[in-house]
Structure formats: C-alpha cells, structure tokens
Write a structure and sequence with these properties.
Layout lengths: L5 E6 L12 E6 L9 E9 L3 H5 L20 E8 L10 E4 L6 E4 L5 E2 L16 H13 L7 E4 L5 H12 L4 E6 L2 H9 L5 E4 L6 H8 L4 E6 L3 H10 E9 L20 H4 L3 E4 L9 H13 L7 E5 L4 H10 L5 E5 L7
Parallel strand pairs: 8-9, 8-11, 9-10, 11-12, 12-13, 14-15
Antiparallel strand pairs: 1-2, 3-4, 3-6, 3-15, 4-5, 5-7
Length: about 350
C-alpha cells in the first residue's frame, strides 16, 4: 500500500543569468490516482542537464519552454510499483522516461522504455548509456565523421558527454585525443582513466589557444564542442584543413545576460575549409541500436567507464542544476530521489 506524499519541483520564476534557488519551488501533494491500464512509477534517480537552462526562457526552441507554476520535466529512471492491467509493464520493471523533477507519477507507459540493471546500474541510463552517451556517439561518429587517423579535441571532457566522446575516439583507434577540464583532478582523470593523450586545465593554462597548440602540435581534425566561447576560439586557431567542428553545446554562454562577443577568428572556417555543424540528439535516434550494441561490448570489455556526482533528495534538484553551471559536478550530475527498495 502506497502511503507517501508526492513531491515535485516547479518553476517559480524565470532566471536572469545563473539560476538561483528562488527560481524554484518544492510542492507537496497527493500521488496521482491509478487508472485502468496505467502504471505507478517511483522515480529513483533524475538527471539535470545544461539544455534545461534554455527551456527556462520563454522563447521558441526545439522543445517547448517550461511554464511558470508547472512541474519541470527531465530524464529519470524509476521502478514500476503497481501495474493496473498494463500489458507492457509489470511491477518491478525499471523504466526510463522524461518524468523527472517529481517523486511519483502515473503513466500509460507511453514514452517509457525498460532498462536492464544487469548491464549497468540503473542511473547509468541517464548518463553514459542514455541521452548523453547517445549524444556523444552520434555527434562524434555521424556529425564529426570520425576516422581513426583523426586528432580529436574535446571540451568539457570530464562531463557526461565529453567523457564518452573521449573513450569512443580511443576505442575507434584515434591515437591523439586531448580533453579540457576545469581542475587538475579532472585532468588526471582524463589521462589516467579515459586514455586521453593530454589534458588542459582551462582555468589556469593562461592562453588556451597556445596550450592547445602545445598539447596537439599536429593540429586538430575533429573538435567536439560542449563549451563554445573561448574554447571555440582556441579550436578555430588550431584546426587542420578540412577539419570538422561538432557543435554539441555552448555552456559558457547559457547564463549570459548580454550577447557575448563572438569568436574573432571565424574566417578560419573559410580559409581552412572547415565544417561546423550543430546537432540535436533527437534527430539521431536511429543510431540507438548501434549505440547500445557498441556500448554493451565496450562495457563488457572494460573499455568504457564513467563518473557520477549524486545529490540526495528531490529538494536538492535545483542546487544540482545550479552546480552544473559552476562546474561542481565530476561526470554526470544526478539527484537520488529514493532507495531502490523504498515502498
């Protein structure tokens, strides 16, 4: 018998610049009524991701903006606690969907997919085995058209997407893979655990472009951009002819209150015959079977690893999101909502 209350996080006001705790509110209510053919899911882990900041702005984008006073949405993995005649999901199943920022929800099962805890811990389906991992896979292999002879530079390389990019490049045979991160500890992780040939601490390297030239004297063939801004500028100065820039994210400017200055060296795109292409992972879901197959093989062979930063309790979800933009996370940022055996 389920007796708990349901708690969720709602957008109280639209942030200006970096979000604050005052932009969110925690609301307690009843667990939704379970109808015929529906399932009751208790969320165990939820994800916070950089794209959520864009949805807090009232503007047209590839996904609708969050609305004031409504429960926020985001990736989550949970456990089916009750199935009321649902033919696809049974009690005890683990499911992945976009019903995060709440502890409980009722669903017909639409938009949910089962996940297998035997392959990896269930929260990994929000990171390396989930949308961040598929983003890395599709971005590097399809958008970046990776070849084993490529020299690869990855910004925010210790994050949920960047860490998988680095390892895919190495697993595909690339000999030169360089990543950037914001602490010496994260840089050590890149070289000692992810197999990067070099790592750049962008916070204390001085001239980032010069540091990149020192780390990659042969130039960059593929730049996987998670940051934009100064990183994009540095990469443009170090790209080889016919290089490819994969524009995945630009977290450096997400909280800007005024239009930032653009890179001064965009003319390199012309002079060096570069390709720069942005992408949204939702347009590459056809790669999901290949991604799952390759990731399963790499995990089994010990060729894929990841780190997580986990905060406990739904009330800490806003803190987790804010921390993401401050670099507080090491790897994937997650919020633990309940124990797996919670009733």
């Amino acid at each position: 018998m389920v007796t708990q209350k349901n708690r969720d996080i709602r957008l109280k006001s639209r942030p200006v610049g970096l979000p604050t705790l005052d932009n969110f509110e925690l609301v307690e209510g009843e667990i939704p009524h379970l109808g015929s053919g529906q399932i009751l899911v208790r969320n165990l882990f939820m994800s916070v991701d950089p794209y959520m900041r864009g949805r807090m702005m009232d503007r047209k984008s590839y996904v609708p903006p969050f609305q004031i006073g409504e429960v926020l949405q985001g990736g989550a993995v949970g456990k089916v606690m009750v199935s009321n005649g649902n033919g696809e999901f049974a009690a005890g199943d683990y499911v992945l969907g976009m019903d995060g920022w709440r502890e409980w929800f009722v669903s017909s099962g639409a938009g949910l997919q089962k996940v297998d805890p035997a392959i990896a811990p269930i929260q990994a389906y929000l990171g390396a085995l989930g949308m961040p991992g598929l983003t890395a896979y599709a971005g590097l292999l399809r958008v970046g058209e990776l070849k084993k002879t490529d020299r690869v530079f990855v910004s925010a390389a210790s994050g949920a997407v960047g860490a998988v990019v680095c390892q895919i490049a190495r697993n595909k045979g690339c000999e030169i893979v360089v990543g950037s991160a914001g602490t010496d500890e994260k840089c050590a992780y890149l070289t000692q655990e992810l197999g990067c040939t070099a790592a750049i601490n962008y916070r204390d390297c001085g001239d980032l472009g010069a540091a990149l030239a020192d780390a990659m004297p042969g130039g960059v063939d593929v730049y996987f951009d998670n940051v934009g801004g100064s990183h994009l500028t540095a990469a443009l100065d170090n790209m080889n002819t016919f290089g490819r820039i994969v524009a995945c994210g630009m977290i450096e400017i997400y909280n800007a209150t005024e239009p930032p200055r653009g890179p001064y060296n965009l003319a390199n795109i012309v002079g060096r015959s570069l390709t720069m292409r942005g992408f949204i992972v939702l347009n590459h879901l056809d790669m999901l079977p290949a991604f799952q197959r390759d990731m399963g093989e790499w995990i089994a062979a010990g060729k894929m690893t990841w780190r997580e930063t986990i905060l406990d309790g739904i009330e800490r979800a806003p803190e987790a999101l804010i921390g993401l933009f401050k670099g507080d996370n090491f790897g994937k940022m997650l919020v633990k909502l309940a124990e797996e055996n919670g009733g």
